[in-house]
Every structure is written in structure tokens, then in C-alpha cells.
Design goal:
The structure is a homodimer of 302-residue chains. Chain A is of the alpha/beta class and 302 residues long. Chain A has nine helices and twelve strands. In chain A, helix 8 links the parallel strand 11 and strand 12.
């Protein structure tokens, strides 16, 4: 049995995983702890409490997915969206507390591994998983292995420059794919298109999708733009690793009619001819609630 | 001893390679043969003639680098710049004629392997080699292996979209990196900047570099633009595979003052912060005349 831990900006989820299934799960706040050590204490305590609630087999390992995590070093590197603005060697900290081997990985890489091992990527030698959320994350599987890069930080498709001198991105640069097709990006597009400010009183992009379904012109146009940008961004990834399949993950991708259907068309148009018809595009096959935990657990098995 | 064969649009070079050195070489025209079979005959004959001129050890294999070659199938797939506008299974054709195993690979991949095995890429686990020539080719080494992709056609950085709705590219799409930083691209930039038409009466980009050295404003600006585009294109590749080193290959890259020096600066600026100072940029360490042959030979050893 493996503990899968998914660290988010506000909440961290903990699950007990066996054979690709989440047997039990709980969550703790990510914020509000005295420091990173106190957070690690709380994490370990939550894992132990969860494992103690049933007749679970022995815990053999823990996998942690977190933003800005470096799989080669086991360190969360100055994550802008987490409470600790310094390097946190969380793999070692959790390993010391739980007494089992612990692997820390980038959250997008974890999602990629989960999808590859248990989801829509099963059996694909060359695969790309793109997470559309607050940010845009990605994990590349090449030749049956996750691409980590020489410093453990490969697979940042969200920060591919899509428009030179384009929109400001949270990374401090301009024109990144993430600035256009993340939740923030879609909301910005809607605003730029003079959409109804009332619509954006709700968080996320569901509110824009709902508006589009009501016939709101700016909302429909927002998705059209997102489709176009995403089609080019994905086609740009294809020329590098030539994957057979791309899996999209995250709430934005669940908009079949507004996003996926037109995206499939635009993506094929955007592809270099030698890839035409050779890369398919699909949505995550994992339950939203379990995917991050399964992915984190999958980190320990590669 | 390995025969390294480099098939170009007008000329094909043949070399005998051992221990990373070209022992002897010759060339035949690529064009003017009755058909692909006649060309394969001529190739095989040239190899045999070359091997017969000295007391060379026995030929053990042949490696062929060619545009539009698919390493997984051994086929040159409808190459727009070669005389045969259909699929040519050249690996098998040469193997049958020479009686030794033959590997066919994309010419940019061959250059990458040559550079990785014998040149500036030696010892790098994660490497990117970009060839700046008539086109822009690339080969990605990830985790000590060449990235071929699910259909053998990965590594086409030249056809990454750099400018949406940008310049027409020879591939039929718009705004590809190749449309901006190939020989053709630089010449087009010079024309668009109202450069002196007399300068372009000479082929290639040497003429533009010479003009820049004479203080020609459009020529200087042409290189400045190329640097900027290339910096973004390379930074876009880095976010995918996170290489430790990038090696540039081809005549354009030999312009140290006009291209490489400013490029090193702009490239670091273009990089996402997590890669800052972690990716170095250098020029091929292989002799221009030998590189393609060594690369083709290297195809047989991986």
C-alpha cells in the first residue's frame, strides 16, 4: 500500500492507494502551519491516522505531487503558490517521519504518471499529458519513461512562448501558453472581449462555460480563442517528442462541446503534415477526485 | 569500418568511418539518375569503389542520413527536396546491394547522433542539436537516447509555430521557426528590411554576414531579428526536454559575433527562470566536412 499525497495551494489531499485504486482519503490545509516542519508533521500524522482507521496492509512507500517539486532532488523549489518561499526538502522530511521511502515529484508529472499507469495513457510508449487548471502543467512520456530533463525540471509546456511580447505570465515572462489557456487565461480573455463582469463573480471557468451555453457571445468567443491557442501549443509539443496520444486533464478539458470537439479539428489543422492523423487527443479517464492521488502514488513505482 | 552516407538535395557524400574519424570520402550527384534504384546502384558502387582504394578493414554496416527519412521504417517519405516524390525504402535497397546491415535516419537526427557521439555533445544525457541550414532540423537526446517518437518522426523543431499567422513556411503552414532562422528565413528578413538586392545576388547567408561586417544596417538588423527568434525557439524546446546543453550546427551558427554572442544573452533572457544558467549553448565541435558522415555512421551504433 502506498500513500499518495497531492499538495495544493490551499489544501493537501492524502490517499491510500493499492492496485490503482484509492482505498481511503483525507485532507489537511496546506496553509496555517508554523513552518514547513510543522506541515510535514501534520502530513505524516494524517497518513498514520488514515492507515490506522481500517485493516489496511502495511504502508510501503509514499509519493508526493507538488508544484515546483524537483524529482531529482526531492525538493520543492521556492514555490510561488505555496506558503514556503524557500527550498523545502519534503521527500526527506516525510520519509524521516513515516519511515518508508518517499518520492517527491512535480504535480503535473504525477498526473502524467497516473494517467499513463492507470488512465487514458495506458500502453502508450510516447505520450503527452497536459493539465489545464490554475496553471498549465505537462508531463512527457518518451520511450516508456517520464522526461525529467538534466535538472529534473523538464515538461513545462505551460511556459512555452506562444505569442512573442504577448500577455504577461505569472512566471514574469510574456506570451506563455499558460497565460492564454489556464483558468486565469480564459477569464482574462473573457474580460478582454468585454464579457459581462457579473459572469466572472463566480470563480473558475465553469461560469464562462455556463454563459456560453446561454449564448453569451464573449463566452463563446473565449472558448474559440482558447481552442486556437491550445491547438498551436499542442502541435508545438508534438514536433518535439512525436507522441501517439495527448491526454488533457483538468476542469477546462471537461467542456466537450466548447473545447474538445473544436480542439480536435483545430489541432489536426495545426499539425505538421507528417503527424496528420497520427496523434490522438483525448480527456483524462481518471475520476477527478482520485487522479492526483493515484498520480502521486505512481511516482513511487517508476 | 562503417560507410556513412549523407544524402543532400543535389549531392550525396559517402565516407568510410572508423573510431569517429573519416578515413576516406567521395561524392555522387543525387539528381540525374533514372530512378531510385539507379541511385541506390550508384551509391553502392561508390561505397565499394571507395573501400577498394585502400587496405581498409571490412565494411560492417552502413548508415544513411537523408531528409524526410524515417528511422523506424527505413523509408524516405516523399521528400520535397529530393528527386523522388514517393516513398523510397532506401535502407533495404542499400542493404541488399552492399550485403551489410544498413540504418537510415533523418539527417538532423544523424547530425545529432554524430555530435553526441563524437562532438560537442559527448557525455550529455540530455542534449538538443539544432541544424541551421536550408531548413532548420533538430535532434533531441533524452536520457541517453535519441527521441524518435511513436512514428519515427519526432524532433522537428524547425516546424514549431513561433508566430501565429506568421510567415509562410515551405511545409505549407505559417510562422514556423524555420521560416525565420533558416538561410531562406534570413534572406527573407533582409529583403523585408529593404536590404540591398545586390547583396543577395550571392547565395546563402555569408553575403549578409559580410554586409553586416561592412556596417550594412539591414544586414545587422537581420541578424538581430534572427537572434531574437532563435532565442525564443530554443527556450521553447528547453521547457519540453530540459537539456543541459544545446549545440548549434550549420553555417549560420559559425557567425560568432553576429549570431552566437548576442544569442547567448537573449537565450538566457528568454529562458523560464527554473532553467536560468542551467542550459549552455555552443557550436558544433565537428569539422563541417566530416560531421554529416560521422553522424550517418553513428546511426548504426545506436
Amino acid at each position: 500500500m502506498i500513500a499518495g499525497i497531492d499538495i495544493g495551494g490551499t489544501t493537501s489531499k492524502i490517499g491510500l492507494v493499492r492496485d490503482g485504486r484509492v482505498l481511503a482519503q483525507t485532507r489537511i490545509p496546506t496553509t496555517g502551519h508554523a513552518d514547513d516542519h510543522a506541515f510535514a508533521d501534520a502530513l505524516a500524522q494524517a497518513v498514520r491516522a488514515l492507515a490506522g482507521t481500517g485493516s489496511f496492509p502495511e504502508l510501503t512507500a509514499a509519493g508526493i505531487g507538488a508544484p515546483n517539486a524537483n524529482q531529482l532532488t526531492g525538493i520543492i523549489e521556492m514555490a510561488p503558490n505555496l506558503p514556503w518561499k524557500y527550498d523545502v526538502p519534503l521527500a526527506r522530511m516525510v520519509q524521516d517521519r513515516l519511515g518508508v521511502p518517499c518520492v517527491l515529484g512535480n504535480d503535473a508529472n504525477a498526473a502524467a504518471l497516473g494517467e499513463w499507469r492507470y488512465g487514458a495513457g495506458q500502453g502508450y510508449k510516447d505520450l503527452l499529458i497536459v493539465t489545464l487548471g490554475t496553471g498549465v502543467g505537462s508531463g512527457f512520456i518518451v520511450n516508456n519513461a517520464l522526461v525529467l530533463g538534466s535538472h529534473g525540471n523538464a515538461g513545462e509546456l505551460g511556459h512555452m512562448t506562444l505569442v512573442m511580447d504577448g500577455r504577461a505570465c505569472t512566471c514574469g515572462r510574456k506570451g506563455c501558453l499558460e497565460a492564454y489557456v489556464s483558468i486565469r487565461g480564459l477569464r482574462q480573455t473573457y474580460t478582454e472581449l468585454d464579457g459581462d463582469p457579473e459572469v466572472l463573480r463566480e470563480e473558475g471557468v465553469r461560469c464562462i462555460a455556463d454563459a456560453a451555453h446561454r449564448g453569451d457571445a464573449a463566452a463563446l468567443q473565449t472558448f474559440r480563442h482558447a481552442v486556437r491557442w491550445l491547438a498551436v501549443g499542442l502541435a508545438n509539443a508534438v514536433v518535439v517528442t512525436g507522441p501517439q496520444r495527448i491526454v488533457l486533464f483538468g476542469g477546462i478539458a471537461r467542456n466537450g462541446d466548447l473545447l474538445m470537439a473544436p480542439l480536435r479539428e483545430r489541432f489536426q489543422e495545426a499539425l505538421l503534415n507528417i503527424y496528420s492523423g497520427r496523434v490522438d487527443l483525448t480527456v483524462s479517464a481518471l475520476p477527478d477526485d482520485d487522479a492526483a492521488l493515484l498520480g502521486a502514488a505512481a511516482l513511487t513505482t517508476f
